[in-house]
Each structure stands twice: as C-alpha cells, then as structure tokens.
Amino acid sequence: MSDKKNDEIKKNEEKEVENPALQACQKELETYKDKFVRVAADFKNFKGRVEKEKASWIHIAQSELMHDLLSIVDDFDRALQEKKEQAVSEEVAAFLDGFVMIRKSLYKFLENYKVAEITEIKQFDPNLHEAIAQVDSDKHESGDIVEVLQKGFMFKDLVLRPAKVVVAK
Fold first, then answer.
1. pLDDT digits 0-9 by tens, 24-56
2. Average pLDDT over residues 5-10
3. Cα–Cα dist 156/135, whole Å
4. Disulfide-capable partner of 160 in 10, 85, 104, 155 (CB 3.0 to 4.6 Å)?
5. What is the DSSP string of 69-80?
6. What pLDDT, on a 0 to 100 scale, did the predictor assign at position 37?
7. What is the Cα–Cα distance from 10 to 24, expressed in whole angstroms?
8. Is the pLDDT of residue 117 over 80?
9. How far is it, in rounded angstroms, from Cα 8 to Cα 6?
10. How high is the pLDDT of residue 22?
11. d(Cα 129, Cα 76) in Å, to the nearest integer?
C-alpha cells in the first residue's frame, strides 16, 4: 500500500509541475514574497534612520539652547567679578549674594544637561580653544595659554563653545 500511495503522490506532483497556471502562480508568489521581504527590510532601515535623525534633532536643539544660555552665564560671571573687585555696601553685598545663588543654579542646570566648562587651559588645543592673540611671555612656553578671555564649554563630549584664549609665542 505504501508503494501505491507513493506512486499516487508522484503522479500528482508531476501533474502539478505540468500545470502552467500553477507554475505562473508559484512564480508570482515568489515575486510577492521577495517584494515583501525587501519592503520589510526597507521599513526597518527607515525606522532606524528616523530614530537616529530624531536623536540628532534633539541634540541640535539642546545644544542651540545651551549655547544661547552661555551668554547669560557670562553676564553673571562678569557681574560677580565686579563685586570681588569693588567695595560695596552691605545692602548691595546681600543683593549680590542672591546673584551668586542664581549663578550656582545656572551652573547646576548646565551640569544636569551635561554642559561642562573646558578645564584644560594649560596648553593650547585648537579643538578646544580659539586663539584671540599671541603675546611674548617669559613665564610661559610657546603654545601655553597665558589668559582665558572667555570660558569654553563642552556639551556631551562635543565643543559647545571654544574657550577664547591668549597664547604665548
């Protein structure tokens, strides 16, 4: 009996192979399967690309906001530097103490968003610093930073604003 069933199966397979309509349908099925696999792969790639672009847009928006905030931080630093250099009344000193607290809050805000001051200010690095001037200096070697004119900041390991410095010749 098993030989009889095998013979019947072979005959049915031969009939299916000989049927041109079935062959056409199978070809069409393979074509659609191939198209489906390609579209699925394209969609997966598209989703990944959109996620990367979204993260990039968020990063750009955050960095622009942080960059604009740095001018306010600079203003606070300059105002408080004036406090240190001038004698002021007790009322003004108390008022300026409030500014010190606000400045601390600003720096805490920057820290929370991974904005950090560039602290490498010994040797000039064109990736971190912008040389505004060169001066002769007996106290410094050539390429050493003599003075920081404006603080530089990093945002998530990228330079948000380079430090503006004076470099020894």
1. 899 999 999 999 999 999 999 999 999 999 999
2. 68
3. 32
4. 155
5. HHHHHHHHHHHH
6. 94
7. 21
8. yes
9. 5
10. 85
11. 22
Phi first, then psi: give them for residue 93, nearest 5 degrees. -60, -40
The sign of the CA dihedral 105, 106, 109, 110 is: negative
Q: Which two tokens stand for residue 131?
A: 């040389």
Pairing of strands 115-117, 158-161: unpaired
User: Locate tokens 């409030």: which residue?
Assistant: 98
DSSP 89: -
Q: What is the pTM of this model?
A: 0.66
Give the Cα separation of 97 and 74 in Å (integer): 17
Q: Which of 112, 109, 114 is nearest to 158 (CA)?
A: 114
Q: Which of 109-112's residues contact partners 24+ apart within 8 Å by CB, and which partners?
A: 109/69, 110/66, 110/69, 110/73, 110/153
70 phi and psi, to 5 degrees?
-65, -30
Domains and CATH numbers, the chain: 115-169 (2.30.22.10)
Q: Helices 20-85 and 90-112, interaxial angle, to 10°?
A: 160
